[in-house]
Amino acid sequence: MQSIRGMQDILPEEIKYWQHIYFAAINTFEIASYQEIRTPIVENTELFLRSIGEGTDIINKEMYSFKDRGNRNLTLRPEGTASIARAIKQHNLCNEHQVQRFWYLGPMFRYERPQHGRQRQFHQLGIECTGTINPMADAEVIYLAQHFLRELECTQWYIEINSIGSIDHRNKYTIDLEKYLSQYIHDLDEESKNRLFINTIKILDSKNQKTQAILDQGPQLINYLDEQTLNHFHKVTSYLDSLQIKYTINPKLVRGLDYYNKTAFEIKTNSLGTQNTICGGGRYDNLIEQIGGPAIPAVGWAIGIERLLLLVKNTIKLQEQPLSYYIATQGTEAKKYALKVIPTLQKYQIKFEIDFSDSSFQKQLKKAYKKEALICLLIGLDEVETNTITLKWLNKHEQKNYNLEVFLKNIQKNTKQLCIEQ
Ligand code: ATP
Ligand code: MG
């Protein structure tokens, strides 16, 4: 049996990085008053149809949808924002006059061709700031994204930002763009040709140079935005300037989800080949209302953890706790006696490993060396009978016998001392 194509096990060696990222997220976001939220992996398919938009790649070809035994149309969530919008509405988590901040981390599912940095089950870490149209919120979420990357020693990235206006602005623009591009339909790349009458605006994303040259001469989205939208964008960039956050304005940046309006941004890297977007986000002022909730504006982003790890795995400094005690025993009585030590080690968070075998002390010591333990606790019949415990310092070839109660009473102090002595 094998795991499903595009869905990977995360093995213990790898999990260390995931835990590091999770704790870095807690530290970064909770300090900024973002609260963690977890929503179910499965939602009604309709939620995504109504939020992500029918012409998008996710809805057209990437959804993991199925019917359950009750004949309900369900989908494994392809992203986190729609579910959070649903939770906000369902539990009345915010209103128009109240700012709420959330963060999340969890698996997402998209039926895409698996490749480097692209999987069918992948994970996103994201934040959402709801309840305000203030451009300062846009700046706050962008600030937190770049701050989080810095915390992880990730430096190989750049921010691109754009204003994509409202649906109305984009609809007007799309009509003109479609008209303009239709004249050059034979010169467009294949993918753009296919998109022309379905998801015209996504052609801006094309990597094809000829298509890009044609676009450069055509209508520009910025000219379709109203005063208020331009003003908002100007404020966002000026806040970023005061935060000394570097960005480039990319007038062709559009996102793959329909719910965004005004601010859209991406954090990209040059180090990952074609899968070069690590973080995508923007403002979504109409989403919560669109799925039947109150009109609550919001802004947020999501980072792909697998892609992030491809970038930072070599630079993250993991703080691994050393194995303080390897516990070697001989015989059933010694094993029972050894169990008395465990609760104290657990209480003081001192890392230990018990050898379950009945092999010779010599063999067990060999294993202790291999595991790079600081100390091997030796417990045999002698120790049981004299109510003591023998400590063997593995790098000094020194050993000492202690009274068990004295050892346990001083274990915190002793272990610290032992570590220093190492
Ligand atoms: P892409 O253009 O790479 O497909 P996207 O625009 O579909 O990205 P978003 O929906 O904005 O991506 O998701 C935010 C982030 O989630 C992406 O920047 C990326 O890091 C990550 N991501 C998206 N799809 C996948 C996937 N199939 N496998 C791994 N990571 C992904
Ligand atoms: Mg995609």
From TrEMBL:
EC number of the protein: 6.1.1.21
Reactions accelerated catalytically: tRNA(His) + L-histidine + ATP = L-histidyl-tRNA(His) + AMP + diphosphate + H(+)
Keywords, in A-Z order: Aminoacyl-tRNA synthetase, Ligase, Nucleotide-binding, Plastid
Gene Ontology CC terms, in alphabetical order: cytoplasm
Key word Transmembrane present: no
GO term, biological process aspect, one: histidyl-tRNA aminoacylation
Any one Pfam family match given in the protein's UniProt record, by short name: tRNA-synt_His
Positions with a binding annotation for L-histidine: E79, G80, T81, R110, Q124, E128, R255, Y259, Y260
Domain Aminoacyl-transfer RNA synthetases class-II family profile residue range list: 1-343
Single GO molecular function: histidine-tRNA ligase activity
Family: Belongs to the class-II aminoacyl-tRNA synthetase family.
NCBIfam families: hisS (TIGR00442)
Full protein name: histidine--tRNA ligase
Organism: Kumanoa americana
Name of the encoding gene: hisS
